[in-house]
Design brief:
By secondary structure, the protein is mainly alpha-helical. It contains 20 helices and six strands. The chain folds into four domains: about 70 residues, no CATH class; about 110 residues, no CATH class; about 130 residues; about 220 residues, hpI Integrase, Chain A (Orthogonal Bundle). The chain is elongated.
Amino acid sequence: MPSHTRLFRRGNVWWHRGPVPRDIQDTYPKTEETFSLKTSDHKEALRRLPRAMAEVQERFDEHRRMLARQQEPALLELTPEQLKHIEDVYYWHLMDEDEEVRLAGLDDAGFEELNDLIDLAEDVGRYEFARGQMYSPFTESEAAEVLTWSSVDLKLDKASSSWPRLYRAIQTATVRAAQARRQRSEGSPVETPPEPQVNKPADRHLASTLIGEWVAEKSRVKGGWTPATAAANKLWAERFVEMASDRPIDGYGKSDAREFKTALLSLPPNWTKVKGLEKLAMKEAAKRAAELKIEPMSGKNVNKVLGFVRAFWNWAKANYDVPSNPFDGLNVKISGKARDERQPFTLAELSTIFKSPIYTGCQSVRYHNSPGDLIPNDNGVYWVPLVGLFTGCRSGEIIQLRTKDVKAEGGIAYIEVTDEGEELSLKNSGSRRRIPVHRKLKEFGFLRFVERQRKLGHKRLFPDFPKAKDGTYSTAYSRKFSNLLKALEVKHDKISFHSFRHTFEDACRNSRIPLDFVNALQGHAQQGMAGRYGNGLYGLKLLSEEMEKLQYDGLDLSHLFTKKV
């Protein structure tokens, strides 16, 4: 007699017996699913078996979903779309249940009893709905159960503010179904809608997964994130997730963002390297730092970090229909103007820098802060500050220059700042620009230095500064320049290499160079047509004419003219 591995006979009756899959054996309440097929006929048992197997498989799948919900962080809020989906699922459930009863047939007593139940459901539902009485034991029980159904499959935090709206959705579905069921009782053909499918919108992806997608997308395109930018954004987004727990992206609220901001306001810069904090999680480190009265990071840095995580949420909103950004409006208010965060160099500071041993005689390139006989004008330590002074370029833009980026056109020597090439990057597309070489740089021997580098076969103008581990050329040099300022005893929190950029801007203004040309020379992004300045709206001849107006009144650099490369 043909049989099946799931069939066995107990007495004269055929039974189903199926083992519990290995992946859930430790948590499933049984070792096998065994029950009667309620027939002694073998052919009938074989006919009933597929349905029994499907029912058992659904039990196993439901157990897996239950385990997954237990592992998954609970949602703090339900979206309007999720609430509407739950309402529709519960409505379908009531209508399907009603249809099953009617298909089985009703005598007069059964029909009357059904209508009494419909009246009761509608009366109670309307009464509770109208008065906002959402906390009846029945409604609470139904709401908790519907979340576990395979077509919903959500886990909601017990303290969520969405519970009242969930109860409301259950009540709404109850009243809607009662009205439709009454129409059926009156003889109107009201169809049961198709069962709504499981609601798994993209915004239920875990934040940790989306962070990886975000960083990969931003780093993929030409002119996209540098490795350092990608690492910084990824680090702080992951730190937020670590602190708030990894959840579906729609499971975070304003309170999570606020708590993260509060921790930042207590954390010192580079807190993972601060003794006593280095082994602590972020939240605990912030608390401990406050107890130890360690000076926290600046408001600017707090806003910078908040900007990283806010940018992630903006990307998620654009790609996955996330309803809101919890980091909007959370920036720390900082007094003073933005440019006060980094000041230009004073005349005295500039004089000190350019009369340091690098420009008057040092011991060696390595010990360039110590007085000696060497003028290292064949090295980047000599030229990078001078180029910064007379171009306003960022340190990374200068140090990544190639020898072929110093060009000439129509008798005008210029520096092309570009990201067109391997391992080149700029802050943004507006940073691409052409900067005429100032006459002072020519007199100091800059073009002779460029030609020397070419003859030596160097592709990069300043090969002395290799790319750092973070993917940037400026990292190592920034430390070197900071050490120079400290050695000269002029270092303070408001100045860095970037101060050359502010110094250049101020000098341009004092030299009566129009702001439009200053923006073009510095690669400042602007709105409208002005945003095209860095891409050639102003011709090289006009830029050169304005550049030649640049002068630093009171700064004596005469000692640099006699130094030959």
